[in-house]
Amino acid sequence: MSGEEQKYVKDAFDTNWIAPLGPNVAGFEKDIESYLGDNSHVAVLSSGTGAIHLALDLLGVSSGDEVLCQSFTFAASANPITYLGASPVFIDSESDTWNMSPELLEKAIIDRTEKYRKPKAIIAVHLYGMPYKASEINNIARKYDIPVIEDSAEALGSKYFDRKCGTLGDLGIFSFNGNKIITTSGGGALVTNDPATREKAVFLATQARDNAPHYQHSHIGYNYRMSNILAGVGRGQMEVLYKRVEARRNNFKIYKENLSKYSDISFLEEPDGFYSNRWLSCILTSSFEQREAIRLGLMEDDIESRPLWKPMHLQPVFGDCEAYTDGTSEKLFEVGLCLPSGSNLSMSDLERTIQIIEKYSTR
Ligand SMILES: *Cc1c(COP(=O)(O)O)cnc(C)c1O
Predict the structure, then answer these.
(1) What is the pLDDT at residue 13?
(2) Which band of pLDDT confidence, cut at 50, 70 and 90, is reported for residue 129?
(3) Across 59-153, where does the E strand assignment appear?
């Protein structure tokens, strides 16, 4: 926490705005909107997962539909597809950004349309904070007239040329879960450039109450709005977003400066015009064995590291789903490792980690 959060939470107590909504909710939304620019309209919600669920609902996804989803991601990108009775179809990554491959996306659209029906939506992810190839993905999406949900849960603070991540899709989502770059302990947001869509999202997120003096409902709703207390935490966190991004990017820089001299360690570079918040610093090793040696070596010294996300098309729960793959994400999963990446790591924390990795690496 930055310290400012307590001021906003205290305001909520002092003014007795403990009941769900209140001035911090509107304030947090304004803070995110002014950060994002680009005519964005934001609804803050109880989680990023809930935001994806609402986004799919807003796009009319329902039973029997297919949604194309990046395979190399956290399960929360794909789970909400199934809440609506729809099926995920997984798309592999390309190696420049580790995100959705435009080629495989187009191949999947053509193939699914031929064999079943046109997919209803696309979920592309800025994994670890690295933007996906938004122009290429958007061009394909427009060509076939399929909307894009931009899963920006890990990418608040990242940029794609002069635009902020979260504003690149038809609908964007953020997460403020405890492990993300800023947090409200739990929370999320939906981003749109259309005020009416935002209104509809808020309506659905508050149990879809019709405008009547009694409780009347003509739609199925959700209880997905963020509370005024947590929005207070979010306002304090927005004040330090820039510092958090700076700290995370600095972690990456130090790892890279010290480890790139090893021929069997490599890093994900930013393509021209791409700016990553470096939510997590990751390395690629030369083999599964080297990756495990490093991971276990770190663990011996009480340092936690973790393999990269296990692709969704390899997850037991999604075993029956269609997938368009070329081995890219499987390889990343096999040889990649997420290193300690917190915004509060000290230079000696980083050095300790680097020294252990060096033991298992060759020049
Ligand atoms: C964290 C995360 C989510 C889900 O956000 P929650 O707020 O935890 O529900 C979705 N997608 C990705 C890629 C994530 O990392």
Answers:
(1) 87
(2) very high
(3) 66-70, 87-91, 121-125, 148-151
CB of residue 245 inside a 6 A radius of ligand 1: no
Give the start-to-end residue ranges of the domains of the chain: 5-238, 241-359
Per residue in 142-199, pLDDT (tens digit) is 999 999 999 999 999 999 999 999 999 999 999 999 999 999 999 999 999 999 999 9
CATH code reported for the domain at 241-359: 3.90.1150.10
Residues 6 or more apart whose Cβ sits within 8 Å of residue 104: 91, 92, 324, 325, 326
Judge whether 180 counts as a catalytic residue: yes
Catalytic residue, from 120, 133, 159, 180: name it. Answer: 180
Cα–Cα dist 186/225, whole Å: 11
CATH fold for the domain made of 5-238: Aspartate Aminotransferase; domain 2 (3.40.640)
By most ligand atoms within 8 Å of CB, the mutation choice from 151, 173, 190, 329 for ligand 1 is 151
